[in-house]
Amino acid sequence: MTTRHSFQTFVAGRAAFIVAALFLLVTLAACGSGDDASAQAGDDAQYEMGDPLSDTSLAAVVTSEFGTDTLTAAAFHEQFERVAAQVPQINADPNQARELRKNIVEDFVLRHALFGEADRLGVGADTTAISQRLQQIKGQFPSEEAYSQALEADGLTEGDLRENIGEMIKQEEMFARYSESVEDPTEAEITDYQESRAQEVRASHILFLVPQVAEEPTRDSIRQVAEAVLDSVQSGSDFPEMARLHSEDGTSQQGGDLGFFSRGQMVPPFEEAVYALSDSGDVTQDLIETQYGYHIIKLTGRRTGELMDSTQASEMIVRDRRQEAVEQEIDALREKVVVRVNQTVVDADLNVSSS
Questions:
Q1: What distance lies between CA 305 and its chain's CA centroid?
Q2: pTM, rounded to two decimals
């Protein structure tokens, strides 16, 4: 067995990424945001799963043409606790805790594939680039002593940090390669984008939360309750009052009001359903299912906001295209990987969608 990457020495760096992702998971309204960071936290990853692991000292083993990497249970728990200490809400919410456990394994799997491909292509970070980035990091501290204390607090040496920086640079180079062929948008595409983002809607919703790991009988039970409330709303029951009584979203006491929003701010199924409604007061004919559960949605207003600057629109189109290009390459890498997981340790199904 070959083990190319030390997970333990990368804990601090990866924890920072996952903390950012989980912060969004914790703070966004239950209908969710469709922005890029949120997408990173809830990817639609699907993996070929090998035989389960029975060795409780292991969390996951990843195998591909690039070799084999092993994530120990100790390293897995260390990273979980490090992130949970920075986002205390995680331990209070089983769904968020399960999502973090899933993200830790997915991150390990993708690092295996991405860095394996980088090694195959001869992509690396030279010592000069690493030293320059290290100096930038040091410059953020008021003194050498403060910098050393921060390293010690994270359980890192400067050698560990240099390794983390090198892998970060390598990742950036791989993403740059994947997106280098993206074309600039045409004037017509920029105009269409500006106009689509200027169209804002206002909506209210009633959310019936469904746990990600819910069995089908549980889902059916929740769906039946949601359908009964939908029938009541369509029969003329007061929507805000029904939201206050039944919605499991933080907006329930405001009658489910989400305020105005534009395209790209809600998860796709929710956004598509809202924009498909024609007139203020219209309610979705069917339940709308997202990763959060079942929604009943009412359109309460439309307006046209200001057109964004054309330069900004162009930059956002290019950003989206680059992200799509990277995601396509990552999806191709996933097909090369076989993952074996000890569910007793991980307790999260990698092939259950969370986006």
A1: 28
A2: 0.67
How far, in Å, CA of 146 to CA of 110, rounded? Answer: 33
Based on the number of CB atoms within 10 Å of its own CB, is 75 exposed (0-12), middle (13-18) or buried (19 or more)? Answer: buried
What's the pLDDT tens digit per position in 240-281? Answer: 999 999 999 999 999 999 999 998 899 999 999 999 999 999
Q: Which of 338, 331, 330, 340 is nearest to 118 (CA)?
A: 330
The first and second tokens of residue 278, run together, are 């024609």
C-beta neighbour count of 223 within 10 angstroms: 17
H or E stretch at 94? helix 94-121
Helix, strand, coil: what percent of the chain each, to 5? 55, 15, 30
Tokens of 210: 């469904």
d(CA 60, CA 106): 10
Q: Which residues, listed in sequence order, are joined to residue 48 by a DSSP beta bridge?
A: 338
The domains found in the chain, sorted by start residue, are: 8-182+317-346 (1.10.4030.10), 189-304 (3.10.50.40)
Rounded to whole angstroms, how far apart are CA atoms 267 and 16?
A: 24
